[in-house]
């Protein structure tokens, strides 16, 4: 009797362990696919962006900018160029990020009123992006290797079947202690992400508000980030989206900060 | 009325007692519903403009009240050990429930704006992690010194003090959070001193300590009064009645207050302390009278009826004047003072009513045999009698000198009144030895100040505050305000603009100025947000729409007088240097709210006091049916008020909230002795038809009762003099001085006036000349 019980226990345990292993592998694969679908669509891309920041009192700030992106390598380095249009007193501010998948990013800003390009520190990827509820990392992506992932369950969000993945940073990170991602099974786009702090409290929620197919690529065209604790919410809408337009790496050089590339950015 | 009430009580004592007990139990049953509110802000009505604006400012700029934690050491505070301890304490403080973590200001949480590698602009926390070397500690200090937004606020220039500012969700949590922080610093701190200061802590802790103080002071006063009465009358059964009357009037009025849904505020918590002595006063007169007459009649009911018969009118008037004094507080514009006045007035009425009903009812039940030896045992030979006779003769023999001396006292006091300084500061409601008071002194000596006021500039239109003219105006205004020694620091939008500009241009000090173009200001602030600056930090100083800006004016002194001086300074500046077109300025913050309600209080108390003074005078004229007697009866009150407040003026003690409210008590109490004395002097003169005999007798009856009252009340409040809370000491001192001054004036000046003006005052009497009175008393 005892031996039978023991054998059964071994069997069950190995089964559970095997499942866990399998699900961990699946989870990492899902997250890498999702990362590529979300942050590396096409070889490059451009769009006009409208960003609306609403604080808990309901007062609203709007930023409008054009954005160019060029992937050096899928899942690896990227270059971003941002040209501000509104508010009008900050129009012509240009901002460039060289995302370095193995080290610190590099960031530069051009301040037109004093005609000066200034490098700005990029150590803290968790800081706010232009005062919104998005962080720099939300904009350019956090590499899937930095977190451990577990497939918690399969579920449905808005009638779309999703994988529910729980991610925890491998190294202690102040951005979040746990993230739950709801990944669309067909497009691998994140439909929803929940960020929890070290007390297990929900801090922020990302939502894909609108999804369209552009140039054959399924794209989240409206996304929002709600800061549950602060009661604020930022909604970002992308328009005039184009992919694979053939951006050249030299567009992402310091001199273009002062004079934006006219072929892509109309002033 | 007096007859029927007393008859009812002496005939059906058990019914009267049963009804009184039933009502008392009913009101006592309301006590569990008590709602406590210790926020001095509620001294202003909720919809007062100053409070509404303060609330709007807090919401516009996401501001919270804060607790200031000071770390002070005799040696250098900037060493790795101490900074690491503060680092750990800060992270634990962040875990406390109710602390607004995002807004916590400490070396490990505030952002520094500086030059990074390759001329990059860096915004990052001043102290990112625990440190290991003295160099790192020195670097942190140098960064604080280099940042006008932090300098003097986070650390003292002499490196001996570091401050943490802990914003809290609600002021009402500050006492609890302060205690939790104390526990933390106790556990994690080293040899350095930790201090916890700030108005919210002072105000909230005062509330907490006040109730423990009440729980000790009221029973202590009660016990002492009981013992003194026992000493005078020697029979517990006899003094039981007044004590029961006192307790019942307290229970009824507090019960009603709670039942009607009023909160028990700092003021209303003092109701028992005010009611107990007032309630006992009447009873002492009754027992005194009973005590002194019982020997004569040897019959309880007759004695009771006679005592009450003689005392009914004076008691009615002493109660009515006290009611008038406290009820007048209802005309002040300060809700807690109104409630306090109304319910003390109610309690006094109840005490009066119970003295006339419950007192005799209990008295009639006392078996005759227990009263066998009761009566004026010390008759004409006890020490009190000897003393009274001396006073009596002194007044008669030196009447003119006494009158002249009294006039001199009034004149001298009047000059003192001119020196009265209106001032208050909730922190100073604690004695100097109290930790909150010490924290206040130490931190404000070393750092930029624990009192925070806000000056809000409203530009009406969006982006108005990005205008160079407006930002520059603010900058110059800041420099002007900082000229006042109590302004420890000012922080505002100009500081951020200048600091970002300075760092943008590679720490070029020639760029440490407000730029000329609006776009540049806008872009500098945008740069701040782009480079990792927390937008929430920025929006503590300006709204997101840039239509309003908030200048933080940090003060080292929370005295209303000092705060008013700074407010006045700003007003003068604004008057001489008109604000840019379309911009208005307005103050917010707790210190400002305190000066606002103080203004209301001072003018409110003045008119309420003058009003009730007039009412009391009219009552006296009606009571004595004589303007002349009315004026004379006002002498003890007038002299007591001018002497006490004149004295306060001379010693430089500020005229604060408790002192102001106590004018009602002074008014209500110091007229009482005069009423008893004059009413009974006139009654006896009418009965005996002889001034001299009446003059002697009034000292035996009313005089003795007055001395007993003075002793009972003034000694009964001695425990309050040892309180840790200054307002309680003040109340104790007032009871003491009201009793002594008005008692002395009544027993010395009034007889002197009566003797000196005998002819005019008792015209109908064929009385002997004053010289005869003098001769006989010798």
Provide the descriptors you would attach to this structure in a database record.
heterodimer, A: 267 residues, alpha+beta, outer membrane lipoprotein receptor (LolB), chain A, 13-stranded antiparallel sheet, B: 778 residues, four-stranded antiparallel sheet, disordered C terminus
Task: Walk me through what this model shows.
The complex is a heterodimer of chains A (267) and B (778). Chain A is an alpha+beta fold. Chain A has a single domain (6-258), classed as outer membrane lipoprotein receptor (LolB), chain A, CATH 2.50.20. In chain A, 18% of the residues lie in helices and 45% in strands. Chain A has helices at residues 2-39, 136-140, 255-258; strands at residues 44-54, 60-71, 78-86, 94-99, 106-111, 116-120, 147-157, 160-169, 178-184, 190-196, 202-214, 217-227, 232-243. Chain A has a 13-stranded antiparallel β-sheet, with helices on one face. Mean pLDDT of chain A is 86; it is low at 17-21. Chain B is of the alpha+beta class and 778 residues long. Chain B has 27 helices and nine strands. Chain B has helices at residues 2-11, 13-28, 49-60, 80-93, 134-146, 174-188, 199-233, 236-259, 271-297, 300-327, 335-365, 383-397, 399-418, 435-446, 468-481, 493-504, 518-530, 535-538, 560-576, 590-624, 627-651, 657-670, 672-688, 691-716, 726-756, 758-761, 770-777; strands at residues 66-72, 111-115, 121-125, 161-167, 193-197, 451-458, 487-491, 548-555, 584-588. A four-stranded antiparallel β-sheet of chain B has the order 7-8-6-9. Chain B has a three-stranded antiparallel β-sheet with strand order 4-1-5. Chain B is elongated and about 105 Å long. The interface between A and B is medium-sized, with 27 and 35 residues.
Following the backbone from N to C, one meets helices and strands of chain A in this order, namely: HEEEEEEHEEEEEEEH
End-to-end gap of chain A = 82 Å
CATH architecture of chain A: Clam
- State the oligomer: heterodimer
Largest interface comes to:
A-B, 27 and 35 residues
Overall helicity of chain B: 55-70%
- Mind telling me the C-alpha Rg of chain A? 21 Å
């Amino acid at each position: 009797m005892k031996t039978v019980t023991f054998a059964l226990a071994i069997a069950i345990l190995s089964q559970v362990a095997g499942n866990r292993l399998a699900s961990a592998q699946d989870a990492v694969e899902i997250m890498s696919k999702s990362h590529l679908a979300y942050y590396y669509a096409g070889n490059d891309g451009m769009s006009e962006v409208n960003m609306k920041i609403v604080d808990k009192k309901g007062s609203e700030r709007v930023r409008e900018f054009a954005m160019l992106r060029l992937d050096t390598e899928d899942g690896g380095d990227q270059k971003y160029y941002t040209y501000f249009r509104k508010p009008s007193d900050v129009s012509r501010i240009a901002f460039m990020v060289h995302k370095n998948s193995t080290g610190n990013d590099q960031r530069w800003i051009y301040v037109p009123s004093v005609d000066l390009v200034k490098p700005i520190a990029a150590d803290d990827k968790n800081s706010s992006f232009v005062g919104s509820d998005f962080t720099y990392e939300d904009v350019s992506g956090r590499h899937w290797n930095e977190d451990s992932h577990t497939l918690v369950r399969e579920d449905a969000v808005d009638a779309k079947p999703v994988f529910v993945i729980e991610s925890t940073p491998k190294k202690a990170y102040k951005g979040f202690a746990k993230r739950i991602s709801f990944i669309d099974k067909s497009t691998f786009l994140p439909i929803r992400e929940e960020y929890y702090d070290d007390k297990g409290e929900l801090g922020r929620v990302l939502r894909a508000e609108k999804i369209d197919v552009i140039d054959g690529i399924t794209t989240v065209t409206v996304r929002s980030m709600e800061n549950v604790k602060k009661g604020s919410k930022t909604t970002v809408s992308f328009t005039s989206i184009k992919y694979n337009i053939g951006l050249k790496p030299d567009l992402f050089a310091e001199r273009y900060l002062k004079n934006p590339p006219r072929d892509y950015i109309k002033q | 009325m007096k007859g029927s009430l007393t008859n009812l009580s002496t005939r059906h004592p058990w019914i009267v007692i049963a009804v009184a007990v039933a009502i008392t139990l009913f009101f006592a049953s309301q006590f569990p519903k008590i709602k406590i509110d210790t926020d001095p802000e509620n001294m202003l009505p909720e919809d007062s403009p100053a409070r509404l604006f303060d609330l709007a400012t807090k919401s516009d700029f996401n501001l919270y009240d804060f607790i200031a934690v000071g770390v002070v050491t005799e040696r250098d505070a900037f060493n790795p050990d101490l900074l690491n301890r503060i680092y750990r304490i800060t992270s634990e403080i962040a875990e406390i429930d109710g602390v607004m973590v995002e807004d916590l200001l400490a070396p490990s949480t505030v952002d520094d704006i500086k030059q990074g590698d390759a001329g990059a602009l860096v915004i990052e926390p001043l102290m990112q992690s625990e440190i290991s070397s003295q160099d790192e500690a020195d670097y942190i200090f140098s960064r604080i010194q280099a940042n006008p937004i932090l300098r003097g606020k986070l650390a003292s220039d002499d490196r001996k003090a570091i401050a943490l500012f802990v914003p809290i969700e609600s002021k009402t949590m500050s006492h609890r959070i302060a205690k939790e922080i104390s526990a933390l610093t106790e556990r994690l701190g080293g040899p350095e001193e930790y201090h916890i200061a700030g108005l919210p802590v002072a105000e909230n802790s005062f509330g907490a300590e006040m109730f423990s103080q009440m729980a000790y002071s009221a029973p202590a006063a009660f016990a002492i009064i009981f013992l003194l009465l026992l000493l005078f009358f020697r029979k517990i059964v006899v003094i039981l009645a007044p004590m029961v009357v006192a307790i019942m009037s307290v229970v009824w009025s507090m019960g009603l207050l709670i039942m009607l849904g009023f909160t028990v505020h700092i003021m209303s918590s003092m109701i028992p302390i005010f009611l107990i002595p007032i309630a006992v006063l009447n009873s002492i007169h009754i027992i005194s009278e009973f005590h002194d007459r019982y020997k004569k009649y040897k019959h309880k009911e007759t004695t009771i009826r006679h005592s009450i018969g003689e005392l009914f009118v004076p008691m009615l008037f002493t109660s009515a004047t006290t009611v008038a004094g406290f009820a007048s507080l209802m005309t002040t514009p300060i809700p807690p003072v109104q409630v306090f006045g109304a319910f003390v007035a109610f309690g006094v009425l109840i005490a009066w009513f119970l003295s006339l009903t419950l007192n005799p009812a209990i008295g009639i039940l006392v078996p005759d045999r227990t009263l066998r030896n009761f009566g004026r045992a010390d008759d004409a030979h006890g020490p009190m009698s000897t003393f009274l006779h001396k006073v009596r003769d002194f007044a008669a023999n030196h009447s003119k000198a006494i009158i002249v001396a009294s006039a001199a006292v009034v004149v001298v006091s009047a000059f003192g009144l001119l020196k009265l300084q209106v001032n208050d500061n909730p922190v100073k409601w604690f004695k100097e030895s109290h930790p909150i008071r010490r924290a206040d002194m130490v931190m404000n000596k070393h750092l930029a100040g624990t009192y925070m006021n806000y000056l809000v500039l409203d530009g009406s239109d969006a982006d108005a505050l990005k205008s160079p003219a407006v930002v520059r105006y603010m900058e110059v205004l800041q420099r002007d305000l900082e000229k006042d020694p109590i302004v420890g620091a000012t922080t505002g939008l100009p500081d951020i603009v200048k600091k970002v500009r300075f760092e943008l241009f590679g720490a070029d000090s020639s760029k440490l100025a407000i730029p000329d173009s609006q776009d540049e200001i806008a872009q500098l602030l945008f740069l701040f947000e782009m480079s990792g600056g927390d937008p929430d930090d920025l929006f503590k100083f300006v709204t997101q729409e840039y239509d309003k800006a908030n200048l933080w004016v940090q003060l080292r002194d929370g005295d209303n007088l000092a705060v008013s001086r700074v407010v006045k300074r700003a007003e003068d500046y604004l008057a001489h240097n008109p604000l840019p077109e379309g911009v208005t300025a307005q103050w917010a913050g707790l210190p400002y709210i305190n000066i606002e309600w103080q203004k209301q209080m001072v003018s409110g108390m003045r008119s309420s006091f003058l009003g009730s003074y007039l009412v009391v005078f009219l009552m006296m004229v009606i009571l004595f049916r004589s303007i002349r007697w009315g004026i004379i009866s006002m002498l003890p009150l007038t002299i007591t008020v001018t002497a006490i407040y004149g004295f306060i003026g001379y010693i430089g003690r500020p005229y604060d909230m408790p002192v102001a409210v106590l004018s009602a008590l002074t008014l209500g109490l110091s007229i009482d002795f005069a009423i008893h004395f004059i009413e009974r002097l006139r009654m006896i003169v009418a009965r005996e038809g002889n001034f001299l005999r009446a003059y002697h007798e009034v000292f035996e009856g009313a005089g003795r009762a007055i001395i007993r009252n003075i002793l009972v009340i003034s000694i009964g409040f001695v425990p309050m003099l040892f309180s840790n809370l200054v307002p309680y000491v003040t109340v104790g001192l007032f009871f003491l001085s009201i009793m002594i001054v008005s008692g002395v004036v009544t027993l010395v000046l009034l007889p002197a006036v009566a003797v000196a003006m005998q002819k005019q005052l008792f015209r109908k009497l064929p009385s002997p000349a004053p010289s005869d009175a003098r001769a006989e008393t010798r």
